[in-house]
Give the backbone structure.
Amino acid sequence: MDEIDEIREFNRFYTRELGLLARSSLGSGLGTGEVRVLYELQHGGPWVARDLAQRLALDEGYLSRVLKGFERRGWIERRPDAGDARRRGIALTPAGAAAMAPLEDATRAEIAARLERLDPDARAGLLAGAAAVRRAFGDPDLPEPPLRFTDLAPGDAGWIISRHGALYARDEGYDQTFEALVAGIVADFIRTRDPDRGRAWIARAGQDRLGCIFCVRETDEVAQLRLFLLEPAARGRGLGRRMLDLCLGFAREAGYRRMVLWTHESHRAACALYAAAGFSMTGETPAVAFGQAVVDQTWERDL
Amino acid sequence: MDEIDEIREFNRFYTRELGLLARSSLGSGLGTGEVRVLYELQHGGPWVARDLAQRLALDEGYLSRVLKGFERRGWIERRPDAGDARRRGIALTPAGAAAMAPLEDATRAEIAARLERLDPDARAGLLAGAAAVRRAFGDPDLPEPPLRFTDLAPGDAGWIISRHGALYARDEGYDQTFEALVAGIVADFIRTRDPDRGRAWIARAGQDRLGCIFCVRETDEVAQLRLFLLEPAARGRGLGRRMLDLCLGFAREAGYRRMVLWTHESHRAACALYAAAGFSMTGETPAVAFGQAVVDQTWERDL
DNA sequence: CAAGACACTTGATCCCGTCAAGTATTTTGC
DNA sequence: GCAAAATACTTGACGGGATCAAGTGTCTTG
């Protein structure tokens, strides 16, 4: 049972699942192909026949006949393309949308009934799993959930600790005590924080946590940037910079004059980001930490 | 865009995905229905026609003809059922398996090619997502990943903290400081643990973490059970009892004479488990913890 | 032990979906 | 600048996938 077999199993399973859900279109007198075309027309704006055929992997001849049928029933309108007389823009008419309404209701009802039998946890798992599959395959239609930056909510502290532990173990070979160290830092932050002088942000997209950054008091004048982490999958999209700016902005408003941070030479991407954000390295010392030889660095900038 | 729409989007998306993958069976001269039947016959052992039709949602008449074709080609064998002369056991012959081999190879190759284009993270996400969907729908064919009980690995400490924080906030209304407390306990455990006298277990199924339990030293004679937690989805299946027994067994072997634990009155299921495992309550005091009024309890048992 | 349910099979039929050829328009190559 | 190739679409022809209904034995049930 390898990766390929797992996908095959899933394909077989979901083929059956789709078969069950397809019953809802039975009453309409339309075939699956026709329903798929209508759905795309309803959700996708004006289409060119060829693109539609390609997207749905339908035979162009078949599609031509399907569209002709729709036109005869007044469900679609085709208007010549300005600039290319071969193509015609296909759009659903109000009558077409009306004709689709009962079908729409039936599929929605069918899915609703299917979901009804699931408990809330399973339902959440289903949606998360479905989104994960689409994301993995790179479905361009998958809506990007909005990015949010929140303060610590229940579970966040542990997540920060867990991801620091796991990623530093993977990338730097750190041992368990690093995770314990982070746990101590986070616990301390929660217990002693002064909302005016210290702040934590979690970057979220939908249900997922993408990263975190902390601003903590070192002295009245000096803020320290700590626990800056980005999930590997979320890197390279400017998110790190946004989080840095959030942190710098808060430090400025909180009245700090300077911001300092620690990092390691091996974090090239992070170091580049610090440099781009106006930090400069003020010291570098070789050290042994968490079972690994590292080069500690301190960086700072005025605010 | 509600739950139902998300599922519909996924259905549309995966219908397209399946359409692409179905090309691999094109060269064989077999239709999708025939391929599905062959697959089931190959993986599912002897079938009765009716069950097969039901599973694949195929018309019985159609299936009858398909099977007749297979029999004519010597791909299947049907032997009368002992005890019911109406039914016949359908099984793939070696010749049938051989006929399927190139098709098998083609689908595997098609999927392999599809996976090749994905980076490792996406691939892991895909498999996890697919499994999540099947689990949510309650697919009985989804293999249960084997249960394992491991010591702390990178990321586990943080997970323990995160889940304690999230679940106690949800169920008991505890505030952030509880998560910080747990972080302190776990950090302390990692830093000061003596492998002979303290132990932690994470219950895992595949990639998922289902729960945790700790045995820590209180005095040379007395062990303390701590940080016992089970994911809600994993409760009610005897897993808690197994973890308790692991913990008690370790404490016994480590030479402890007695085991104590703290809990709260509101944890009814856990308390019942403790009682069933031979613990008895030794004290009860009302208290205020983490923003909530609670009734602290201490339990203990001899080893 | 008859009536009904059950496991299939067979017949009739439809239309889904595919291949191939044809038309009009646009792009490309020399 | 014009023929050849490509593109967007249509139409024709056709096979067989899929469905409904009726039929045949066999088993279960009241």
